[in-house]
């Protein structure tokens, strides 16, 4: 089975351009199950995102929230919000990602009155369920937007018309009152989380402790634990191990280096410990992983 992988920079910002400068809109008919390890890993983007679960169940992680999106449900993810999608089985979840400026140019009346209050609010996401009128209306429009991407060429005008209808419903049914203190706290924590992640990315081959990770963001060990747990639901050391394993996994299928060499180069104290952790995380041995990836490529 072909697998997909999301690409991000050192701050976890998604690096792909969604659409282009002339039409900043993109449609992705994604099956989360087909992504590497059945997840679209932690990322964020300045664009707005709507996802609709057409088949299966998607698990969306945002901050301390874990949201199950069953078939027929959807979610709106605000600009700049760190999130991750997972699946336990085949889950077709088409999604749209677009710049707020698609609806109106910055500094225009429409933008300042109807767009800016949303993207500058402290509301990170909104879940839509077909069990209520508001959610049902949004989901119907979202489904229509996805459908015309697949069935109708030259659909830009229809897409924008439907987006305006969808946005109008959001404006009427939600409280987007901005809480600047809340936004400041959220951004401050995310900045420190990203600083510690970057330190791990730069030094994972070296001996790293919780103390050195915390020091990279000028906070206490307990503060580092709290920020990681609320941000991505794991400890700094657990993230370090996962990152080392991810780097090792890549080395397994792009090089012919021995398992022991890869273990040493990615910061593990012994190949035995590396193999135990690799099996625990990937449910197969390093050699089995190398064989599977080689067969997928060939």
UniProtKB/TrEMBL annotation:
Q: Does the keyword Mitochondrion apply?
A: no
Q: Which residues form a coiled coil?
A: none
Question: Which keywords does the record carry?
Answer: DNA-binding, Transcription, Transcription regulation
Note the SUPFAM superfamilies from the entry: Homeodomain-like, Regulatory protein AraC
Transport as a keyword?
no
Task: Report the superkingdom from the record.
Answer: Bacteria
Q: Name one GO molecular function term.
A: DNA-binding transcription factor activity
Q: Which InterPro entries does the record match to this protein?
A: AraC-bd, Homeodomain-like_sf, HTH-like, HTH_AraC, RmlC-like_jellyroll, Tscrpt_reg_AraC-type_HTH
Domain (HTH araC/xylS-type) spans: 194-292
Q: Which PANTHER family match?
A: ARAC-FAMILY TRANSCRIPTIONAL REGULATOR, HTH-TYPE TRANSCRIPTIONAL ACTIVATOR RHAS
The molecule here is called: Melibiose operon regulatory protein
What organism does the record attribute this protein to?
A: Roseburia intestinalis L1-82
